């Protein structure tokens, strides 16, 4: 995981080569790497979707997922981190910690994933090991454990000193012909360069002190027999202690190398097997209820022209077999899978069974989607529930027996999409269905007010996201769809409380439907960003003990009303609804009760005075000093708020917050302003209330 262009895909390619899975390595710039296999990835030289590969190293089975760095594809990182047990964070060592690295680091924190840092691009002019280590300390608020010191930098980068074993690990050749498979490991001796010797000695002492501070067991070893002779600390004990602190999230090991120049990858692979956890070392409370029974999480779906949907699962316990049925707890359905495959980017290998810890690819599951928990049969959920009850002495609801799903970020952009002709509408719907199943951050809505016949609306994470979807519809499904202009997905909220009452009285088929609903809406301050209404019932309603299906009908009505706010039809967030009374004539249908509750909520929201919220983005721009003035000047025209300008070498890194509405087409603008030398990342930070001036300008624009 890392910022775009740090070298994740290049590093992955080297890993696959050294572990013997490919005979020659590809290059992202030539568009022939294993893990960037989509046409769009190969053309653009960027990773769009996370690709899984399985390989072996030092008698360990490793499942690797190469993730994209671009914020538009953040759900790909989210689902990878959800199912992986450890991560390697790759850095461009000439830039240190970049904006998107901070984001993925936070995502990894959320999932409690232990990490290793790999400072890549040590061959680059301007690369700096110490700067990068400092920036890890400062920006990621973690303790870097430096396990290597580089030998030479830039063009002269030759290898590293392994501080654990006090050995020089070097790749002598710098030629591009050399694949780096052969390297030398030699003890560091007094004949070596004195400056390097001193640097290594200091760094090793530092490391030992640092680890002793974080690990009591190791501290005792040091304080005991070895305190006089710190050089004699056995490397196995140091290694074990580093492993413990890494797994306990107290620190992160740092290594360095150059993927492009084929240096430092083998030690990185060793470190992965040495310091990152095995599947059974990850503490998953829930799994003990399943014992040896199958429990797996579906985390990704791919559409294959021939084989239909392929579902990726991470197996947490038990064994998976082809030609078997599985029970999907979330959907409460049983499905049959035909084949079981071991993923290898787009080349998959058929297998006859796969055990816990692995990532598998299943063929034949039609309904299982990202985030679903699958087990072998409905009866195994019941058995797990009984075991859980025995252990904890209380009844477990179904939810407690499901693995946590995959969190999907909210889309910030939308646009209409139209087929080239009405006859193609069904095909387009099918394409969108397939794409949506693959990508939960793509939302497709039917907009009844759009005025067009089709009225299909695409909601996505950013301009690049929508552009790639458009391109895939064309190439994979052969449909030349037209996109409308990209628009910002606003939200609505209320500033005050209001009470409303509504009655619905209708004769349908000679039967009377009569219902009255009264409710109060008020701002929900505890967590203003919740996008579904927080519903409660007044005491009198609680006493009246509404039937559950009636309650559901009332709540459905409120939910649907909050999906389309009264101002511009955007979702309403931060709302609490208190139901004051619900009275229905016997025989009134649930649909009528829902409709009445929805209308009443809408009325109350209108009275409460809605307000537009706009997405505020955090923006990070890396720009050459010469263009800084131009870029800052332009930002101030975009209602931008500059938070910080940091320097690094000849570059400035600008951090700012800017309303998304002012960032349309920014990549082109920035390219023009800086002759293509600057890069930026843009990411949702929060939804903010607009000033009344900005809001009226927006309302005027949209309504007229
Ligand atoms: P990703 O976005 O993190 O997957 O990065 P890529 O692997 O696609 O690499 C981005 C660019 O950096 C490509 O042009 C690579 O050739 C280049 N690159 C990757 N590793 C190195 C390295 O070790 N040194 C140098 N100088 N360039 C590298
Ligand atoms: Mg990549």
UniProtKB/TrEMBL annotation:
Alphabetical UniProt keywords: GTP-binding, Mitochondrion, Nucleotide-binding, Protein biosynthesis
Catalytic activity from the UniProt record: GTP + H2O = GDP + phosphate + H(+)
Name of the protein this chain belongs to: RRF2M factor
Any matching Pfam family: EFG_IV
CDD domains attached to this UniProt entry: EF-G, EFG_III, EFG_mtEFG_C, mtEFG2_II_like
InterPro entries attached to this UniProt entry: EF-G-like_DII (IPR053905), EFG2 (IPR030851), EFG_II (IPR041095), EFG_III (IPR009022), EFG_III/V (IPR035647), EFG_V (IPR035649), EFG_V-like (IPR000640), G_TR_CS (IPR031157)
Start and end residues of each Tr-type G domain: 1-280
Organism domain of life: Eukaryota
